Amino acid sequence: MTDTGTLWVVATPLGNTDDLSPRARDILTEADVILAEDTRRAGLLFKRLGLERHGRLISFFEHNEDKRLPRVLELLEEGTEVALISDAGTPLLSDPGFTLVRACRDHGFTVSPVPGPSAPVVALSASGLPPLPYTFLGFLPRKKSQTEKLLAAHGQTGATLVFFERKSRLATTLAIAHEALGDREFCVARELTKEYEEFIRGDLGSLGAMDLELRGELTVIIGPAGESGDTTEDAIQQLVEEESLAGGKPKEIARRVADRANGWTSKEVYAVMRK
């Protein structure tokens, strides 16, 4: 009886081709089948890396993962060596593959990681924001209400938040984060490991003074709420009195107070106002 194959979960470079490990190079060269999120981009990657590919490329992305799954399991049963890659970085982190890995585990097939570049970890390591604990949120929801709910829920844990964002949505998302989390430090890591790599640091309360028209792949990091520097509740009450003199509806006043306070969201200020 033929031994079953192994599913190799292989990390590939984010940009700099020198970041491919020797072990990853060997496995990608020798694998019988390579599951790629985008076969065209995978082919270009192999060309840039100077790899002689032994196996065939099979597309494996979000919308065909369930359809491809039975065939991949058959291949592994037959003893085929299969490598899973994403467009860049470590597979499964906001990329397809979880369903496959879980199914392989359930069927008793060997799954072996081949570690390497990972955008969330790479960005966090050089951001200057607290590295532990941290929570990776992937891509945020498209709807504002869902994004607010997600950020608010994780923002109470004391963890640094890490997520991916599209350049067209960056300014809007950071504004939502300010409303949901209050004034916190953030960092946008752009074009990691590439020629134009850049880390942009700032505070959510000062977004208006920043140029957020950025190009390239973006990883966003938002630090936890400050502890010793948080505005006290007594100080919040004083700010509420000051802002009330300027007029406006209660929620508008709460928003203005949150803009001036440290470590408070408009919802938290509003709750204090209603006491």
UniProtKB/TrEMBL annotation:
It is found in: Cytoplasm. Residues 6-207 form the Tetrapyrrole methylase domain. Pfam families: TP_methylase. GO terms for biological process: methylation. Coiled coil: none annotated. One of its GO terms (molecular function) is methyltransferase activity. It catalyses: cytidine(1402) in 16S rRNA + S-adenosyl-L-methionine = 2'-O-methylcytidine(1402) in 16S rRNA + S-adenosyl-L-homocysteine + H(+). It is an enzyme of class 2 (transferase). The keyword S-adenosyl-L-methionine applies. The keyword Transferase applies. Keywords: Cytoplasm, Methyltransferase, rRNA processing, S-adenosyl-L-methionine, Transferase. InterPro entries: 4pyrrol_Mease (IPR000878), 4pyrrol_Methylase_sf (IPR035996), 4pyrrole_Mease_sub1 (IPR014777), 4pyrrole_Mease_sub2 (IPR014776), rRNA_ssu_MeTfrase_I (IPR008189), SAM_MeTrfase_RsmI_CS (IPR018063). Its EC number is 2.1.1.198. Its main location: cytoplasm. Belongs to the methyltransferase superfamily. RsmI family. NCBIfam families: 16S rRNA (cytidine(1402)-2'-O)-methyltransferase (TIGR00096). Catalyzes the 2'-O-methylation of the ribose of cytidine 1402 (C1402) in 16S rRNA. HAMAP family: 16SrRNA_methyltr_I. This is Ribosomal RNA small subunit methyltransferase I.
